[in-house]
Design goal:
276 residues, alpha/beta, TIM Barrel, 2 domains, 8-stranded mixed beta sheet, 37% helix
Length: 276
């Protein structure tokens, strides 16, 4: 991964990592491991943003664990018509609307996961060790493929089997943009657009971000996404629409602090969040 954009390599690094996944979705970190991972990564604020799920072991929108501030969040994929986007909600509270969306998504995730596993097993003639549970995503299946007798590592599993154009790919339910935003606005203190340069049309995604509270500016892009990256474009949109500038590592492993906002931006976010 490339270094966090805008971080001065000779100056202080990010003070927060506002995009982290755990075992509640497709990451490997558990909540008890979070504080140590944050300290190792040099950050003292972490947002747990599991895919389409509110972490069941976080009891409040903002908590403190072993000296690390933990923001309860969510990453929700939505359908914007011409492309799918990821929205980040911070300081999330449980509401009837968001819980209904989550339940529908998680039921479909298990259905989809089972179909992908069966397709891979039939295609490659292997047995995969995958628990069909809430939060199941393709990274978990890719790790199982890499650990099996299949001739693919983690990235190869996506490239040759379960990527969007792969022979074992299965579509899943995604709420539309308006439905997702409405549910997140009702349940979250702050709603933002994740990693705008990972989408086929970043400018269209950033136009939709103008309707939100925040945009992810600090992110460790790689590959073709890094080629498209234009931090000045994000800065312009954020300035024109008075958006918070968030960011994080999008960690699915135990390495935090790869990217994230500086202290001044974290303070701006904290002003919008419930107090501990």
């Amino acid at each position: 991964m490339s270094p966090a954009p805008h971080d001065d390599p000779d100056g202080p690094g990010p003070s927060a990592d506002l995009h982290v996944h755990t075992t509640a979705s497709d990451g490997v970190l558990t909540i008890p491991e979070l504080a140590a991972a944050a300290r190792e990564g040099g950050v003292d604020v972490v947002a747990v943003t599991d895919h389409d799920r509110i972490h069941p072991d976080l009891a409040a929108p903002v908590t403190v664990r072993d000296g690390v501030t933990v923001i309860r969040g969510i990453e929700l994929r939505v359908d914007a018509g011409d492309q799918r986007l990821d929205l980040l909600g911070y300081g999330v509270e449980s509401t009837e609307r968001i819980e209904a969306i989550i339940e529908r998504i998680q039921t479909d995730r298990k259905r989809r996961g089972a179909e992908i596993v069966r397709a891979v097993e039939d295609h490659v003639d292997v047995d995969l060790d995958v628990e069909l549970r809430e939060g199941l995503g393709r990274p978990t299946i890719a790790r199982a493929i890499a650990e099996s007798d299949a001739p693919y590592d983690y990235q190869g599993a996506f490239d040759h089997l379960i990527g969007d154009d792969g022979p074992c790919y299965v579509e899943r339910y995604v709420p539309d943009f308006a439905t997702g935003v409405e549910a997140l606005r009702e349940s979250c203190a702050v709603v933002g657009l994740a990693h705008p340069f990972r989408y086929p049309d970043p400018e269209a995604a950033l136009d939709l971000a103008r309707e939100l509270d925040a945009v992810e500016l600090y992110y460790p892009y790689s590959g073709s996404s890094a080629d498209r990256e234009d931090p000045a474009l994000v800065e312009d949109v954020a300035e024109e629409s008075d958006l918070l500038r968030t960011g994080g590592s999008d960690a699915h492993d135990r390495t935090l602090g790869v990217a994230g906002p500086p202290a001044a931006e974290v303070d701006r976010l904290a002003d919008r969040l419930p107090t501990v």
